[in-house]
Amino acid sequence: MANFGLDDLRVVNPYDIAFREAVSAVGGAHVLKSARVFGSVGDAVADCSLVVGTTAAQKRELQQPLERLDTGMPPLREHSGQAALLFGSEKFGLSNDDLSFCHSLLRIPTAPETPSMNLGQAVAICLYEYARRVPATPRRARSDAIEGADAEQMTKMLLDVLEQSGYTNRITAISTEQKIRRWVRRMRLGRRDIPLMLGILRQVLWKFRDSEK
Fold first, then answer.
1. CA 30 to CA 203: how far, in whole Å?
2. What DSSP character marks residue 18?
3. CA-CA distance, 65 to 72, in Å (whole number)?
4. In the prediction, which pLDDT does 213 show?
5. What's the angle, vertex CA 158, arms to CA 155 and CA 159, rounded to 5?
6. In Å, how far from its chain's centre is CA 162?
7. How far apart are CA 121 and CA 54, in angstroms?
8. Is the CB of residue 157 less than 8 Å from the CB of residue 205?
9. Confidence label for 66 from pLDDT (cuts 50, 70 and 90)
């Protein structure tokens, strides 16, 4: 990250001993020292209006757009709001729940017979691609895209509505939550849309609860 001019490292549930005893190469100590630890992916990207995940896309049914690194990186690079590039663990990659927080996905074009890469190498390749080009278009003064915290609030309220209506059940609750979270991000709502949408959902919930009295 230091090599390519980035310093906002966010780590989700690291193995504490290894993480705290990690030693950085020369020039990168400040990145490791200032790294922030979060308990969930949702918390880590709460202030991000664009989240791009990384995957080898092997034997998985993906629900978001998947692009090669060279074509999928420009939207991340040119995004004027807070953006995140999300990597999974070296052993398992990103889970389906992790992927539900992503707006889109990237893959490094490796040889099909050896798709797996060392995590550090994958990060370096992605950050090189991020840093190597000047944005093709001028950045806007401010992104209108909603942040992760707002998207998650809307997701939770939609799930409350679905539960009150009888649409969801305990068997399908996890997959439904992931589907709704992805759907909210696909809609690409603007900041001005959120108060209206949340107001509508609150009124629906109030009507449901009032009818139960």
1. 48
2. H
3. 9
4. 65
5. 85
6. 23
7. 13
8. yes
9. confident
pTM of this prediction?
0.76
Q: Quote the CA–CA distance of 105 and 103 in Å, as a whole number.
A: 7
DSSP state of 46: T
| Beta pairing class for 104-107 and 50-54 | parallel
Structure tokens at 23: 């030693």
**Predicted local distance difference test score (pLDDT) of residue 105:** 93
What one-character-per-residue DSSP string does 66-89 give?
A: EEEHHHHHHHHHH-SS-EEEE--B
Nearest in space to 1 (alpha carbons), one of 89, 119, 107 = 119
List phi, psi (to 5°) of 17: -65, -50
Looking up tokens 């090599």, which residue turns up? Answer: 3
Close Cβ partners of 213 (under 8 Å, ≥ 6 residues apart): none
**Residue 6 Cα to chain centre, angstroms:** 18
What are the tokens at 25?
């190469």
Q: Could you tell me if 117 and 108 are in contact, meaning their C-beta atoms sit under 8 angstroms apart?
A: yes
